[in-house]
Amino acid sequence: MATEEKKTKKKFSRRKFLQRGAIIFGGTVVAVIASKGPIRRFLAQKAENMDFPLLVSTQEPSFWFEVLPDNTILYKSTKLEMGQGIFTGLAMLAAEELEVSLEQIKVVHANTANGVEDSLGTGGSNTTLSLFKPIREVAATLREMLKAQAAKQWGVPVAGIKVENGIMTSGNHKATYYEISTSTKEWKTPETPALKPSSAFKYVGKDVKRIDLKPKVTGQPIFGIDQTFPDMLYAVMLQSPYIGGTLKKLNTQEAAKVSGVVKIVEDNELVAVVAKNRYAAEMGLQKIEAEWDVPKKWQQAEFEALTTVGLGTDVRIQSEGSPESLLEEAPNQIFKQEYRTPLATHAHMEPHGAVAHVEKDKATMYVGTQASTLFRSTIAKAIEVETEQLNIETTYAGGSFGRRIDSKHSEKVARIAKIVGKPVHVFNTRTQEFQNAIYRPQTHHVLAAKIGKNGTIEAITHNQATPDQVLGAIPANIGYTLLGADFVSAGHGASILYNIEHKSATLWQNKLPVHTGIWRSVGMFPNTFAIESFINELAHKTGKDPLKMRLELLAGNEQINQRYKKVLETLAEKSGWNQPKAAGIGRGIAIGNDRKSIAAAVIEVAIVDNQIRVKKVTQVLDAGLAINPEGIRMQVEGATMMGITAALYEGLTIKDGQITATNFHEYPMAKLSDTPEIEVIILEGHAEPYGVGEPPLAPVAPAIAAAVFDLTGKNLRTLPLKLS
Amino acid sequence: MEINFNINGKTAKVDVDPAMPLLWVVRDELNLKATKFGCGAALCGACTLHIDGEAYRSCSIPVSFAAGKKVTTLEGLSESEDKLHPIQQAWMEENVPQCGYCQPGFMMAAANFLEKNPNPTEEDIKTNITNICRCGTQPRIIKAIKRAAQLSQTATL
């Protein structure tokens, strides 16, 4: 991938490019298409709904299409391919309007030197929805420009030109896109053409396999950790094994003597062993004698207690009717429960790191990042170069799940490269991945309901305590000042959507002494666990079937309720909800609404050797228009497996000031042996595509908890779920 | 220390610390990047390769162990890019990889497993392949191993 980028690097006026889409013929910029409209409309809508996790979005993503000599189209993606399959989805959308076959589209990551920028980054299950229209508009414009030029050359009307697989024909005239693209240097950008109606889609809605299958099954060097420079050195950073630890004493004499170690970098808090190979760097790190100042040696109980409803600042994010006074008036009719989710981490398989080369007036970094534009500016600042002098070459990422939005680690890599003066490869050890991470915040939830006569839920309140996920990253705490709480991210999904007359949701913003951030499905994960577990408990308490009770609670008239209803009814049918269960099987249900997508699951569990074993998962997902159903199934399966890990195994604990997990034996993951039978049903509830990567994760843990209750009568209210 | 071994059918001669994990020798001295670093403690299997026909987690095997032996990485699993190994073929057909990072290790573990168990049950697959994947491709990996078993059997008929 890296070499391909280099080969196709062209000269152009960068200024013209910013915030625009570009079409390149024969290395010359021929058209600059503003695609602001759709993106801005999208952002405005998102802002209105307050449902996007990245608040910093002053620019829009831009597009880069290039017609290559073999008549293929190169698309440079500003969006990171981290396993979610976005290259495939974007290629499908582009192919629709370009009138080429999918095989004729090559997708690579854009580097920042191209000038294509995207400060929105990749995340929040936003890419498909945000680019759905703009990418097709730019592709259609490219097609129309080529058609117009062919029509001019041939002296025929544009309307009579047919295009198939990138070959234009009219009567006896025939030419490839490439031939026409190199036939002139005079181009005019037309008005944005009308887009194909969905009835004419060739690829959208069809099952398409990943376009990057081949490089992935043949082990091509596509990841950040695979990148090399000539004369590259390897480094490992010294990082504090203690929460909040700062370096007190350092002795690197023995480390410097290790064979292969060439330098010990010591720059304020930044310490790294630089060596001729990774092994020597790791051996050197082991020889460093470091003493740490630890302000407080945290223990699990006191650390967990920091996140408690009632502590910190509170912001009411939902308030309908007067639930609190109703609850106060009728203490005998109150049902109240508490739920907790633990501190956790991303544990993506490719450890965090980057390869950097900082020269006199130019710098290059290979890194899998969800936010290349942001990385470029913060890293340039860290190494004191002009932003334009730094090129971020985005690579495929070996998993991310929200982790690769933060640039702090990469800033340090760049500083090491600058000090060393040679290219350096710096990746975390797995222990550092656990002990020096950005964590999924722990949460505490208190839910209370007033149960009226006939078992009606008259009022419900949800109090959630959590540290933030994104607000701390916003300059000068603008986020806190404006919003008061991180309800777009950590509080996402905290509101009660059920049709209950009196309801409220309140966020308690707590501080933790560790850096917390975004983790796949953000607030939906803990909030769905708490709210859906509570709804399941209420169903039991009032003697109702949990699925029927949910249908009753949707007795409103909003459009979303119709989609909910269809999802639940489909789920009941496909999961055999109303059929008898096999002996030794418990069954549970949960539903979540995330990024406008609705995901619901029925899960069956068994208990084997006092362990919860997930046997069968039926997931129904309404993610709007399904661009690639096969891609969606992959994401639902993946979210289900990640949800099983999160429900049964995952959680960090703290002892004597340290995160106790040092490797996967202390932070287990679901394995092949944990794989249940998974059935995925995709419904289409809208003409637009919604998010897919995150929504199906949310219902997994509460559905498992409900199934365990169904089987054992035990209500487990803390993740990970443990029988004893 | 100079160590000689065979890598994917070719002779490799490296002059490194004999304690250096084979993983780093293969990746950085021999520039074969398919074998991945995941945990450094033989827990995740991302670094799985074959030594004399056995699957090993190379992050925890010193290069000295490979001296005089035959090492195969994913790059050497198939005859050529056009003629993929049944495991790779099955991985393509089942559309397995998401991020793809752990897949080389899974494919190497599965290829070795199938050589010893050409006709495994689902239970055999689930208990014998213990690598880690965070994206959640486990359901497809199981299907792909079954499919590869079929493909291998068809090929040998």
Automatic annotation (TrEMBL), chain A:
SMART domains: Ald_Xan_dh_C. Residues 218-296 form the Aldehyde oxidase/xanthine dehydrogenase a/b hammerhead domain. The keyword Membrane applies. The keyword Transmembrane helix applies. The chain crosses the membrane at residues 21-39. InterPro entries: Ald_Oxase/Xan_DH_a/b, AldOxase/xan_DH_MoCoBD1, AldOxase/xan_DH_MoCoBD2, AldOxase/xan_DH_Mopterin-bd_sf, N-heterocyclic_Hydroxylase, OxRdtase_Mopterin-bd_su_IorB. Pfam families: MoCoBD_1, MoCoBD_2. Keywords: Membrane, Transmembrane, Transmembrane helix. It comes from the Bacteria. This is Molybdopterin-dependent oxidoreductase.
